[in-house]
Queue: 4 jobs
Job 1
Amino acid sequence: MKTIAESVLCRLDRGDKNLRANMVMSSGDYTVYPDSVHVSGNNAFMIVRNSEKRNLLVVASNAAKVPAGFSGEKIELFNGGAALVCELDAANAKALRALFPWCAPKSLRLERTTMGCGDRLGLATRGHIQACKKYALSPVLAQQSMRELTMTGRTFRGVVDDATYMVFECDFRDGYGADGDHLKKICDIDVALAAGMPMITLDLSEVMNAAAGDWNSDEINSAFSALPEKNRAHVKADYAGKSFVVGNHTVDVDELTAKRCAVMYDAALDFALEVYKHLQSKRGNEFDLEISIDETTSPTLPSHHLYIARELRLRGIEFSSLAPRFVGEFQKAIDYIGDLAEFDRQFACHADIAKSYGNYKISVHSGSDKFAVYPTVGRETAGFLHLKTAGTSWLVAVEVISRCEPELYRDMHKCALENFNDMLKLYHITADINKIPAVDSLSDAELPALMEMPEARQLLHITYGPILTSGLRERFFKAMHKFEKEYDEAIRRHFDKHISLLGVPEK
């Protein structure tokens, strides 16, 4: 490490590019990530790795003038210089963002096409960047839900910090987002905001009356009569029996549908206003609010989508994106299940509603690996969209393990089987895992093919929590560190397929 640091010290005054071209990049067990080399004043910063982990290396020309906020093991250098070998922890990440502001997430509300990358491991950002930087697309590199944090033992702060280090490592200056995903309570939103997450996905599933979607007319009329008179008059005057022209579509709202929408959504929309005002008080206008109504058992009808969009606007809520529940099934880890022609027909109407009421982005949740619908999604939105992925980056890691560490994969597979039934309480999938061959009956060379089998993909997808919190955790992360280049390339290829099928233009 000292050899690397002293080679930096000799060239501190020559700028990033010259330093990268002429410094020692490898010494002993340590290697520098070339794109991570940055000069600020009389100091240089870079990410290094050895066979066990990654560190931040800070090199200062004067030992007394090491930048504030950084801490680590100190190495004395010639001519009074010094180096710090820093852990990739929260304090050093905060100091790095202060010195290099482009390492911090920002609001993407004005960006046309955005993509939630869903890195559950804190390891996929390098591959995500390699894929995304090729396209006219802004990535949300840090994205986690409360459920994912619980399953992985991470925190919102840790998720942002992991992205910070890799953004710095890749010299990615195009800007990226961070999303507190599927949050339902203001107290949880505050934790995400405190961690520097400018995007909040507000999940309205617990404050909307989804059951009313199946109520008969008497039940709807009874519940509607309990609403405030002002609400009832507004719904009758502005929706009941009305037709709304949106793009190439006409959305009819009969009286019962209007009442049903009020019963189902009014309380949730009032809560959305409360959250919106709270976000304004915390971040001014520098936030992205996504409204999520996709966590329901039945598809969002166009008439319901229109009601929600209009009522959000009438309440003065500025939102960046909205996630309906689309027709068909968006199950985890596999392609779209359903009638593609019907999906195309309904999605076109949803896209026209979005264009007609503020031109917000349609957000596609559980969007990983839904290759069959991507051309429609990209075409009908004209690229004004947000695609949310999550577990697919985890499954790419599993596939890499199956190729590179087959014995570890076998143990992960067995752990998944042991915990499958418990995870079904949290995730809706229809995989028949009895179709998966016994893992011990397969040769090492046959294991990677399991990640092309829908049933095995879904098995491993929903059991990431038990695997990552079991005794396999240390072995897993050691293997991922060892095979990071294989993982980066696999992620790049996988996300390139997602983005290209959406029709996102290259830069």
Job 2
Amino acid sequence: MTSTEQSPMPSLLHDGERQVQARLGVAEQVATFAHKFIRNHLIDQHREFYAQLPLLLLGTVDEAGRPWASLVAGTPGFLTTPDELTLNIAANPLTGDPLHHTLKEGADVGVLGLQLETRRRNRMTGRVKSLTPDHISIAVHQSFGNCPKYIQTRAVSLDAETQHPRPLANAGRFSAAVRSIIAHADTLFIASAYAENKDDVAHGADVSHRGGKPGFVRLEDDRTFVFPDFSGNNLFNTIGNLVLNPKAGFLFPDFDTGDLVYMTGTTEIIWDGPEVDAFKGANRMLRFRADEVLHVEASLPMRFSFGEYAPNLKATGDWSASPGTAR
């Protein structure tokens, strides 16, 4: 190498993400913006954003390698960034949340900051630097903004008098109450992980938002559901993770009751075919089969007031309009 040559910049995307981008013909497009879009630190705008939030989504992995999606909450200001490489969370995990078992120093963590009132969201990956019962410090690895697609607006207010939650027993299938929450959902969160190479800059856990018209998730049996995956930013962080590791965790919030449903299991990507073609706006489908399900009642220490559905949902369908695939 001559003195004028520079070492190539390491890819910010792992092999699974690049595979999906190549399969869908967007690899060259992504290559033009990824290095400008994905940073190894928090910019000032994102640091200010996190300081405003009353809630934060986290993706972690348990000792069995199973991803879980979780939520922490607090009075705005409970998230702080003492520097551009650190996000601190002053909160205890909610009752029954898998974070009680998955958080430890050095653990990979995916972060999603979501402001429901404005549809703003930012993503981050990192690792736990330090941990106490009421404080989590995360070292930033990657940080980037996300578009506002498919987010329903909701006003959020903290509720100090929230009824103490009553966790139900873990189950390997969906109860009637859980089935109802899934069937009426317009929002879910999915956790995934790429863990093949800890030295890879793109290694780690992730958590992402998915939204649709109420009922966009179709139950197939008491352990399985399927839902459409719509167009996004073409990075394919979640789908890329699932290509390499089909394990995933889901979190379904019930914004009316404050219930939370956590689950972990295995996914299948349905790339094309009649099932995809029949659902307007779907680029592919994700099918999930649960191994463990936890339903915690009245868990969220906040209340939500619905605003409006995301405008781009008008271009998407629903299962009632897809009789050829309804079950």
Job 3
Amino acid sequence: MVEETQRRLSAIVSADVAGYSRLMGVDEAGTLRRLNAHRAELIDPLITRHGGRIVKTSGDGLLLEFSSVVAAVTAMVAVQDGMAARNVDTAEDEAIRFRIGVHLGDVIVEGDDIFGDGVNIAARLQEIAEVGGVTISHTAQENVSGRIDAVFVDTGEQSLKNIANPVRAWRWAREGVGETTTAAQASDEPTLPDRPSIAVLPFDNMSSDSEQEYFADGMTEDIITELSRFEGLFVIARNTCFIYKGQTVDVKDVARELGVHFVLEGSVRKAGQRVRITAQLIDGIDGKHIWAERYDGELADIFDLQE
């Protein structure tokens, strides 16, 4: 006999740390220590106090379930207020800030886990939320309106990744309804350090020779090393940059995830004893090309070419 799928109506919360990869690249141990302290001293107690449960965690994210959407939104606003207070005396490039999405919807229940469109919508709302903010769906807004001490601004219909129909979203206005920036607009701009910042993506090997993969990786490492010598630059570490190796990425997404203003990408191509290297510098906020160059040379002079 096939077991019937269990469903229930829940308030689903998706939360993640903005710029987590950048934070880990700068100070892995310190970031984990601060995140664990925030959870133990603020976040987890608020979840429990408002009747929620932690469904699952990832390195930088939380999936939560509440039986009451009023309790869920109240708890998340309290989390963001508490995090703002805890970050007051923290350096900008060390501060841990969350994006939070909340949705009221149907979920599929399997053991302690939950699945379905309700979970997916909460995750996508989190992606368009402001850093330090809360974005909720229209169904959630209808149920919390007039019941909580928080103001939410209508941002209209939002086209969310892999969600078939547009979702009307509401953004928490910390200072009231006078703000005009929508959550979707704000999420396009990363939280930047107080100095020029750059990430160097792994250079692509455009030749059929797999041996050139090592050369492409070495080129990337050399550039990161050289840029790191400039004290006025904030440079993302090699290990963090290489998580994007072999992936087709949107540069603006990379800049937002890593919290940098500029992204450098390029490729290496070999034909016989000749090598061609291309590089392009991109503004991670608007995706526009700032600079591009091509370098041709002989394999025998490869180090001169790298330099």
Job 4
Amino acid sequence: MKSKIFESKIREDIVSKVLEAKKKQQPYSNSPVAGKQHSAKGLIVHARHVWRSGYGRGQSRVPRKIFSRRGSQFNWQGAEVPQAKGGMRAHPPKITQFTRDLKINKKELKIALLSSISATASEKYILKKYSTIDKLDKKTPFIVSSDLMKKKTKEMLNELKNTLGNLYFISIKEKSVRAGRGKMRGRKYQTNAGMILIIGKDEKLKTGLFDVKKANELSVSDLAKGGLGRVAVYTEKAVKELEDKLGENKK
């Protein structure tokens, strides 16, 4: 079964443009009250005959907090400003610097998705992405019957092994202990991406062996993140839905 959606012209430039626009970084910033949780008076007044005046003391006009006093004599210490102990940071990260407003045209999104799908059926791009493999045993694209969803795990894996050939061994997710200090920093384990199985919107499959995505939710990031040519297996229903969604191959 060969579909026209696997024969689109692969536009690497548009795919990279879409991936750049879809990049996300978790925003972070300091607390809005960082360095301000104290009873500092604020800027010290240097006028004469004013309560708490800093007149004649040779002190700079920075916010200060009072530790002790004796009559009108105060024991002050600088606070809040960056150079003071416990003060705020001079130029902390701000939420606004993480907001991205990059937009992509609908036609470009469609071209990028078609290109990503075509790359999953291109032996050239698959071999380029998985450099440890010299040649593919099976023909692309990899399309399986929708009956795969009803089979038990062992039978399903055997069918995938027959479908993928020598790509099967890099298609199943493997978990390993990370080397280096990352083990102590909340990322002890690392996994490979593995393959992705694209299914129809009415089909269901729950597994941790590989990624599963419905055809109507498929995005460029699912297929092209990390490089074009990811190992992808499509069910017959998924191919039909993608044909209906994307239409004919339009240049």
